[in-house]
Structures are given as structure tokens and as C-alpha cells.
Amino acid sequence: MPWDPALYNKFKKERFAPFVDLQKLINVKDGLKVIDLGCGTGELSRMLADSLPDSQLLGIDSSDEMLLESKNYEGSNVNFRKQKIEDAILEDASWDLVFSYSALQWVDHHRVLIPKLIQRVSKGGQLVMQMPSNHEHFTHVTIKELANTYPYNIALDGWARDTPVLSIEEYTTMLYDGGGQSITVFEKIYPHVLEDANALADWTSGTALVPYLERLPKEMHDAFIEKYKEGLKRQYNMSPVFYPFNRILMAATF
Ligand SMILES: C[S@@+](CC[C@H](N)C(=O)[O-])C[C@H]1O[C@@H](n2cnc3c(N)ncnc32)[C@H](O)[C@@H]1O
What is the Cα–Cα distance from 89 to 110, expressed in whole angstroms? Predict the structure, then answer.
């Protein structure tokens, strides 16, 4: 199953909540050249560009489905391109603002990734990013456990996704080692109240389940999701369900 903008947008209010916190970390200047890594539908890219006077923004994403939506947010100062983050950061280009929102958790090897991101920041420019850090939450741990059971372990050939997300101490040190100044790094819990365990499952179906469903044969999808929902219902047999969602927010000037 590829990325599904409709499913992703189901919790748009909750997913967009940290954007306001992240925006506050941006040094607003006229005419910034901005890249948004993992721009998804482009809705936030448009909001970002509109908040930066005379900026030029390029949003890149690897998903055709998400980029299809981005047509709605294109304009003379906002463009989108299909590209992997891993490829974009190898290009010899520099940006006044390297921005990423809820996407870098999908890219492996952050000890390699972060220095490469820093290289793409122009002199005096900024790296500003947010990524979820809730991989220890029951919703995520349960997916890995389920993937390790028969028949999914066979179908997945033993694969399960390990998070590449590091501690905030490590990110802070990498930003400093890369020459960062005015470094701000913090982890914040966004408290969400969802209707029930099914709503929790819908939330993760739009994100954390995606790489598992991409790898499992289609005929196994329904049973995998059903088993996952059963596990969540056992744990969260209540309504509403409280979902404390950890996220890391960072900014540094170079
Ligand atoms: C959780 S969504 C966030 C989208 C957008 N930034 C937002 O907040 O609305 C994550 C996005 O990262 C994209 N993505 C994941 N891995 C990627 C990669 N290696 N290169 C480019 N995009 C990637 C997905 O296609 C998806 O659109």
C-alpha cells in the first residue's frame, strides 16, 4: 500500500499542530531559497512559503500519490518535484532554509544524513526540522511484534523496521559539530485525544504501517490490519483514547 493522502489527512489538525512550534524557530528574512524535504501533499510547504516574504520553495517527495495533491499548492514561488531525500541532498545546491516536517524518520542512517543536510545549507542559512520520536509507543511496538509472528515473518523474510531516530543529545551534538549556531533542539509531547482504538489504528495506517503493507502481499493486508486492531483494542478498551505523541523539533544556523 503506498502513501494515501486521504488517510494521512484524516488527522490533519493533529499532524499539523507542531508546525506552529517549528515555524517559530525560523529566522524570517526576505527572499529565502527554501527546500522542503518530504513535502507530502505540499499543503504545509505552501503555508511555509506564504509565511516567508518573497521566498522560493522547492518541495520534494518520493510518493506519486502525495505529490498528486501538491498540484493544489503550486504557484510561481512554490514548486514540487518527485525525488528521494537521499538523492536531493547529494546535489550540489545550497538553500537558505533546509526544512523538513515529519519525513526524516523515513530516511536511514541519521549520523550520515544530518551532516549531509548541513552541507546543503548556505552560509548564514538554517536547518529546521521536525520528526516524530514515538517509536517506543505501544502503537509502534505492536506493529513490530506482529510482523515477527507467523505468517508475516515469513512473508516479510524477517524484516521489521528499526527507527533511525536518535536521541536529542546526539542531534544537538551533530548540529554543533557541523558548525551550527543558535542551536535549538527539544522534544515535545503533543497530547491527542482520539475516539477509540480504531482511530489509533487509522492514525498509524496512514504512516507507520505503510512500509509493512508495501512489503506484504496484498492478500495479507486485511488480516494484518485486523490483527493489529485486535492488539490495540485489547490495550485500549476505552473511549476516548489518549495518544501522547513525542516529536523532536530542531533548528540551527550555519
Ligand atoms: C508523514 S508524511 C509528511 C508529509 C509533509 N511533510 C506533511 O507534513 O504534510 C512523510 C512524507 O515523506 C515522504 N518520504 C518518505 N521517505 C522519503 C524519502 N526517502 N524521500 C522523499 N520522500 C520521502 C513520504 O512520501 C511522505 O509524503
Answer: 13
Task: Tell me the CA–centroid distance for residue 36 and ligand 1, in Å.
Answer: 10
Does residue 204 have its Cβ closer than 6 Å to ligand 1? no
Per DSSP, 75 falls in state B
* CATH architecture of the domain with residue range 5-253: 3-Layer(aba) Sandwich (3.40)
**Domain-wise residue ranges, the chain:** 5-253
* Spacing, Cα 39 to ligand 1 middle (Å): 6
Q: Which of 193, 227, 182, 196 is nearest to 209 (CA)?
A: 227
- Strand segments, DSSP code E, in the chain are 33-37, 56-61, 78-82, 95-101, 121-132, 181-194, 241-253
Closest CA to 192 of 184, 182, 204: 204
Determine contact, residues 38/52, Cβ cutoff 8 Å.
no
pTM for this model (two decimals)? 0.95
Could you report the per-residue pLDDT of 192-227, keeping only the tens digit for each?
Answer: 999 999 999 999 888 899 999 999 999 999 999 999
What 3-state DSSP class applies to 115?
helix
Cβ-contact 11, 206 below 8 angstroms: yes
